[in-house]
């Protein structure tokens, strides 16, 4: 199993956590898992090098705080494992221009600024993502709904390579948990909660001050009614809050609907705010503790990269052989 997350913000948010990270933690129990902080992907848009270094470490600290166990799972930074970029080049040579042009995330990201201002790296981003997955021979890729198309591309590329050069890659599948596959913006429940797209009040960051996250829940957009019922069509704000509540407590949505029947939104939001505070308070403390010892954090990541390379080097050697390259030193 493999998955990745971008170090493009100071904190991950509840969409990242409920859509993906929670599954990462659960699946490491009975899968061989590789989890990476994808810094090569983060440089496809404008960024500040100093902030990137800081955010990469913050990302790793948050993954540890979320419960990724570096003994059990291989936790590493993408740029420390050169085979990702090497395989991405190979994959780019079997990807069609038209195929790459159909990736909706690229279209969304360039819709405002125009494709002229976008980099070639942003365009080929999904091909690097395919390489991330294939270089580990991953079977499963735990992600949120927005990554489904990239995993589909990965499957197509794996099949194409196997067909053209002989069976080399496993064909991976996205692992998407339906209930939490798409967490919405608290202020605009018609769009997904997103590091780049949401307003600060629309995102609950995992590293928010607990008081700030409670306030965001209390001021989340609902509707003019007062019934706490799960109706994504007509009450998307309430449905989103119910999803978050249910995911954090493990309680069924129907049970929550019963509990808040006839009580209006006030009580419901107040209780959810408490649940969120209970989650973010220890999470924040744990993350800050990991960040206190940068040398130890870097050592965990270096050990992870070494373990990762034990898998990626043989895969790349096999690929190079299949491609017809002359064996090197
Ligand atoms: P990224 O960094 O945007 O997001 C990390 C994970 O969080 C999920 N996610 C969400 N899930 C539910 N609701 C939301 N509102 C929400 N927002 C984000 C994402 O689906 C993702 O699983 N391209 C990837 C990073 C990547 C990757 C990979 C993933 C690079 N290589 C290889 C899997 C395998 C991305 O930008 O995720």
From TrEMBL:
Residue positions binding L-tryptophan: 132
Subcellular location per the Swiss-Prot or TrEMBL entry: Cytoplasm
One matching Pfam family: tRNA-synt_1b
Residues annotated to bind ATP: 6-8, 15-16, 144-146, 183, 192-196
Aminoacyl-tRNA synthetase listed as a keyword: yes
Keywords: Aminoacyl-tRNA synthetase, ATP-binding, Cytoplasm, Ligase, Nucleotide-binding, Protein biosynthesis
Broad class of the protein's primary localization: cytoplasm
MF terms (GO), sorted A to Z: ligase activity
Annotated EC: 6.1.1.2
InterPro entries, sorted: aa-tRNA-synth_Ic, Rossmann-like_a/b/a_fold, Trp-tRNA-ligase, Trp-tRNA-ligase_bac-type, Trp-tRNA_synthetase
Broad EC category: ligase
Coiled coil: none
Catalytic activity: tRNA(Trp) + L-tryptophan + ATP = L-tryptophyl-tRNA(Trp) + AMP + diphosphate + H(+)
Family: Belongs to the class-I aminoacyl-tRNA synthetase family.
Function in brief: Catalyzes the attachment of tryptophan to tRNA(Trp).
Protein name: Tryptophan--tRNA ligase
């Amino acid at each position: 199993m493999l998955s990745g997350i971008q170090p493009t913000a100071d904190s991950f948010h509840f969409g990242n956590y409920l859509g993906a990270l929670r599954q990462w933690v659960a699946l490491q129990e009975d899968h061989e898992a590789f989890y990476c902080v994808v810094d090569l992907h983060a440089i496809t848009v404008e960024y500040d090098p100093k902030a990137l270094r800081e955010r990469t470490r913050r990302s790793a600290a948050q993954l540890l705080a979320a419960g990724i166990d570096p003994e059990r799972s291989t936790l590493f930074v993408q740029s420390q494992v050169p085979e990702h970029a090497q395989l991405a080049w190979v994959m780019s040579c079997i990807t069609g221009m038209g195929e790459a042009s159909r990736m909706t995330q690229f279209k969304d990201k360039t819709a405002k600024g125009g494709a002229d201002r976008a980099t070639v790296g942003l365009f080929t981003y999904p091909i690097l993502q395919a390489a991330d997955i294939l270089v580990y021979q991953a079977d499963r890729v735990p992600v949120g709904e927005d990554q489904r198309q990239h995993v589909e591309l990965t499957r197509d590329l794996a099949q194409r390579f196997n067909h053209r050069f002989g069976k080399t890659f496993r064909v991976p599948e996205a692992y998407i948990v339906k209930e939490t596959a798409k967490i919405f913006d608290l202020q605009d429940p018609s769009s997904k909660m997103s590091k780049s797209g949401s307003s600060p009040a629309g995102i609950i960051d995992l590293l928010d001050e607990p008081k700030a996250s409670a306030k965001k829940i209390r001021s989340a957009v609902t509707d003019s009614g007062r019934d706490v019922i799960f109706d994504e069509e007509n009450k998307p704000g309430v449905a989103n809050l119910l999803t978050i509540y249910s995911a954090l407590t493990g309680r069924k949505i129907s049970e929550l609907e019963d509990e808040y029947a006839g009580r209006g939104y006030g009580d419901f939001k107040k209780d959810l705010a408490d649940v969120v505070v209970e989650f973010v308070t220890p999470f924040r403390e744990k993350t800050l503790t990991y960040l206190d010892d940068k040398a130890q954090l870097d050592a965990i990541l270096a050990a992870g990269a070494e373990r990762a390379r034990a898998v990626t080097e043989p895969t790349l050697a096999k690929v190079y052989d299949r491609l017809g390259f002359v064996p090197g030193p």
